[in-house]
Amino acid sequence: MGELPGNNCDNILTVSEVNRYIKEIMSRDLILSNLWVRGEISNFKNHSSGHMYFTLKDENGLLKCVMFRTHNLRLKFMPQNGMKVIIRGYVSVFERDGQYQLYAEEMQNDGIGNLYIAFEQLKKKLSDEGLFDSQHKKKIPFMPKSIGVVTSATGSVIRDIMNILDRRFYNSYIKIFPVRVQGETASLEISHAINKLNEIGGVDVIILARGGGSLEELWPFNEEIVARSIFNSAIPVISAVGHETDYTIADFVADLRAPTPSTAAELVMPEKLAIINRIGELNLRLVSALLRNVKQKRDKLTRLTDSPVFRQPYDRIYQERMKLDILNRDLKKSMLASIERSKAKVGFLIGKLDALSPLTVLSRGYGIIKSEEDGTVVKSVGDVDAGDGIEVSLEDGKLYCTVKDKVIYK
User: Is residue 241 part of a domain?
Assistant: First the structure.
């Protein structure tokens, strides 16, 4: 086949190459890599593999979607056709079919919309920065002298907290810092209250409290300015916002989360009567332990005083002295025996030396002959000639002689 006019054959791509190229372009797009999409579910199919396939639609368009099993296991509901949802995920190309689709990683019922997205985004941001880490949590003081309460001055929350604190420890000291707990300026007031209590001082713990409400009503406690004020507070902060099932950003950042404001009052201050009873119990245990310890020491002292060591304290010394005398005696006997053995050995060696001594030989009638000229010992008749002078040593003296003649024995 001839080359097409105006075209370069070197630039012709396969279908797979085109699909792969489009996929690479989409993967580099920051928006398509992480986006939220709102729509209505249709053509929903929960595959036997555990993966979910469906279409997200609105009045003007359709978007193919897939949610793999690893992500949909975290769903708190089962998606259905006609359900309006908000989905977080990324858009990519399924190369085999050349079809782009949304790969869903998270799904929520629609109805909370932008607030929920904002909540999740701020939650992730602060979590990545480490504001929720347990290592930053400060310990709540036991029996604080002064408690700071940041809440509305007109609501029932402050009355509940005061009633519980008075009931548990009637002379507890409370400092109330009134703020708005909903509305546009509420987050600024809450942040200012926390910062001001830190600046003024005089409180050992701060309770951040509000009654229950919708997500919109609790939103000031989801603002970043409030979260950072809690995190930067040198005074421990207890978050008691909403009901037990309500969670706000303030709950994650606070040093302690109380399900309700009433629970926060119970957590921050122990019951006085319970403390008195506990002190009484500890006092009884202390006295009992002291008495038991004294009895144990007294019994031990009695055992020691009745022991032979204390009744006859010098007995051990006497025993050791007798052992020392026995050892001394044995040492002397051993030394005498060693000396006797050494004497016998020396006597034996002296006898051997005597047997080999020239003087002993002389005592038996023998003599030692030396040349008178040079003093050498004459051992043979060949060592002298007739007329030579010789010296003969005997046991009791010496003879000086002259050789008259010599006879050689053959």
Answer: yes
DSSP 408: -
**Which domain, by its residues, includes 398?**
362-402
Residue that has been written with the tokens 């790969």 in this structure: 103
pLDDT score for 33? 87
Residue 31: φ, ψ to 5°: -70, -45
**Single residue among 270, 301, 335 that ends a domain in this structure:** 270
| pLDDT tens, residue by residue, 216-228 | 788 899 999 999 9
Residue of 123, 64, 113 whose CA lies nearest to 85: 113
- Tens of pLDDT, residue by residue over 92-139, are 988 888 889 999 999 887 765 556 767 888 899 999 999 999 999 999
Domain count for the chain, please give it: 3
Structure tokens at 198: 């830190």
46 is a domain residue: yes
Backbone angles phi, psi at 177, to 5 degrees: -115, 95
Please check whether residue 161 is in contact with residue 117, taking contact to mean a CB–CB distance below 8 angstroms.
Answer: no
Last residue of a domain, one of 92, 111, 130: 111
Cα(273)–Cα(169) distance, rounded to whole angstroms? Answer: 8
137 and 259 in contact (C-beta within 8 Å)?
no
**Residue whose pair of structure tokens reads 């629609």 in the numeric block:** 110
Residue burial 146-171, b: 16+ Cβ < 10 Å; e: rest: ebbbbbbeeeebbebbeebbeebbee
Hey, is 394 helix, strand or coil? strand
Distance CA 319, CA 312 (A): 12
260 and 175 co-located in one domain: yes
pLDDT less than 50: residues of the chain: 1-6
Give CA–CA dist 214/221, Å, rounded.
Answer: 12
Q: Are residues 189 and 76 in the same domain?
A: no
Residues 152, 247 within the same domain:
yes
Helix (H, G, I), strand (E, B) or coil at 230: helix
Q: How many CA atoms lie within 13 A of 6 on its CB side?
A: 0
Nearest to 162 by CA among 277, 264, 313, 300: 264
| Strand-by-strand arrangement of the 146-151 sheet | 173-178, 146-151, 205-210, 237-241, 256-257
Tokens of 104: 């869903």
Structure-block tokens of residue 402: 């002259």
- Residues 97 and 161 grouped into a single domain: no
* Token pair in block for residue 336: 């005498």
pTM to 2 decimals?
0.49
